[in-house]
Design a protein that fits this description.
Elements: H1 7-14, H2 18-25, H3 28-36, E1 43-47, E2 50-53, E3 58-61, H4 64-67, H5 76-87, H6 100-111, E4 118-122, H7 125-140, E5 144-148, H8 157-160, H9 166-169, E6 179-182, H10 187-194, E7 199-204, H11 219-230, E8 233-237, E9 261-264, E10 276-280, H12 282-286, H13 306-321, H14 324-345, E11 349-355, E12 358-363, H15 369-381, H16 385-398, E13 400-401, E14 403-404, E15 411-414, H17 422-441, H18 444-461
Parallel strand pairs: 3-13, 5-6, 5-7, 7-8, 8-9
Antiparallel strand pairs: 1-2, 2-3, 4-10, 9-10, 11-12, 12-15, 14-15
The structure holds pyridoxal-5'-phosphate.
Length: 462
């Protein structure tokens, strides 16, 4: 028996069984996916922007745990903060007391959003979205929630009711009543939805994360003005694009907007302890907590726990000390320029877009007849497979972990840590360049993809 205090040894001892364990007791479909696309690398270590597999190979991670590792994996400052909480015998979660660490984290976050005065902590992004829906309904006395097509806000019922992707909603209906979907970046559609004056909140990602879609420059500011005109709260879900990812602390800062509520989660955890937060105007907060007997009317047992608060405080230190916001802006600019170059060099690259270190490269049908026929075959099998033409060789041959942007999408999404350095950017550029050149030169990569998928499917079945 391995001592409970040595979880590294437990990990190492169980490492070879990971796929069996998951197939038996957890999500067997995820294991099938990994084996089918050849992503069953068996990672054993992570540090900063990198992962190492069981054979000792180093990978560059452009998924960053879906944005959780904004400051990089296993940052020593966060580890030290967490150890100090554990070693400090703090009076955690007394419940009939209030935590000074939560007070400090709220103060530091609100210092970044000076037009907002109150913070509400949750345990995840989806929980922050749920809270925002409740606060907005209580504050306005209205039920309506307007959200956008292709939006993603999380998978609990309230958040899911505001998700604009069918895949996540099918089979789980009915959604909560009162939710209306409108196209993103469409002000007339927003005004039409708000005119009835029964909408509590317009919930929007300043940059849509699933599809990596930034809005046109005036959209958010004018959406905010429309919300004010019709008495609707303007709620920015910055769970994916906030905390410096786009080169500003909040993505809305690029667009001159000051939302009534701002939601953060993911990276605030330091990659270790889940945490979410709603930052909001005091008026929006006041209606929910308007009497002493309602002091606990919304909350969650583990919210504001000291480990989560310490992770948040340490994460803000790292973002500031290591100038990660400036780094995201500079590296993002370099990589977007590179992706645009790829677009001009490869006729089957249709778009390069994004802001800071939230980027995407979209593939499209090639013009060459022969290649077009092969691509057609892939698309006929599954629309999402075209993107795998890039992600699979990127992983297998270039050791770059990168994902397709959303279900059935032809776009490749880059969501790296904000710590990328020159060598990482060189690696990304070399990897994309070689992969796209190979994909465009001949039908070879399509056959190779077919072979990988076939072999993978066999391995997954076995
Ligand atoms: C914009 C956005 N909102 C909300 C969520 C939900 O966060 P969580 O997975 O922590 O519940 C996500 C997660 O990807 C997200 O990208």
């Amino acid at each position: 028996m391995i001592p409970a205090s040595d979880l590294r040894a437990e990990f190492d001892a169980s490492e070879a069984d990971r796929y069996d364990l998951h197939s038996r007791h957890l999500n067997h479909q995820m294991v099938r996916v990994l084996k089918t696309i050849g992503f069953d690398a068996r990672f054993v270590r992570g540090k900063g922007a990198h992962l190492w597999d069981a054979a000792g190979n180093r990978y560059l991670d452009l998924v960053s745990g879906w944005g959780v590792f904004a400051i990089g994996r296993n940052h020593p400052h966060v580890a030290a903060a967490l150890k100090s909480v554990l070693d400090g015998d703090l009076p955690n979660l007394v419940q009939m007391d209030v935590s000074p660490l939560a007070g400090r984290l709220a103060e530091r976050l609100l210092a970044r959003t000076p037009w907002l005065q109150k913070a509400f902590f949750a345990n995840s992004g989806a929980e922050a979205v749920e809270a925002a829906i409740k606060f907005a309904r209580a504050a306005t006395g209205r039920a309506g929630i307007v959200h956008c097509e292709h939006s993603f806000h999380g998978l609990t019922y309230g958040a899911l009711s505001a998700v604009g992707e069918k895949l996540y909603r099918d089979g789980f209906g009915p959604a909560l009543p009162g939710f209306t979907e409108i196209p993103f970046d469409d002000l007339p559609a927003l005004e039409k939805a708000l005119r009835s004056r029964d909408v509590a909140a317009f919930l929007v990602e300043p940059i849509q994360g699933k599809v990596v879609r930034p809005p046109s420059p005036a959209y958010l500011r004018e959406a905010q003005a429309l919300c004010r005109k019709y008495g609707t709260l303007f709620v920015a879900d910055e769970i994916q694009c906030g905390l410096g990812r786009t080169g500003k602390f909040l993505a809305v800062e690029h667009f001159g907007a000051e939302p009534d509520m701002v939601l953060l989660a993911k990276g605030l955890s330091g990659g270790h302890v889940p945490v979410g937060v709603v930052l909001m105007r005091k008026e929006a907060f006041a209606k929910t907590f308007d009497r002493m007997d309602k002091a606990v009317v919304h909350g969650s047992t583990f919210a504001k726990n000291d480990l989560a608060m310490a992770a948040g405080l340490a994460t803000l230190d790292v973002i500031e000390d290591e100038k990660l916001i400036e780094n995201a802006a500079a590296r993002g600019e370099r990589l977007l320029a590179f992706l645009r170059r790829m677009q001009s060099e490869h006729e089957f690259v249709k778009d390069a877009r994004g802001l800071g270190l939230l980027l995407a490269l979209e593939l499209g049908e090639p013009r060459g007849l022969k290649l077009r026929a092969f691509w057609g075959m892939l698309e006929a099998m599954n629309k999402g497979l075209t993107g795998q033409l890039v992600t699979i060789p990127m992983f297998r041959d270039q050791r770059v972990l990168v994902q397709v942007a959303g279900n059935g999408s032809r776009a490749i999404k880059l969501l790296p840590t904000l710590t990328l350095d020159d060598a990482d950017c060189d690696w990304i550029e070399r990897a994309f360049s070689e992969t796209l050149t190979a994909a465009g030169e001949s039908a070879g990569p399509v056959w190779s993809l077919g072979k990988t998928l076939l072999e993978g499917a066999r391995a997954a079945a076995g």
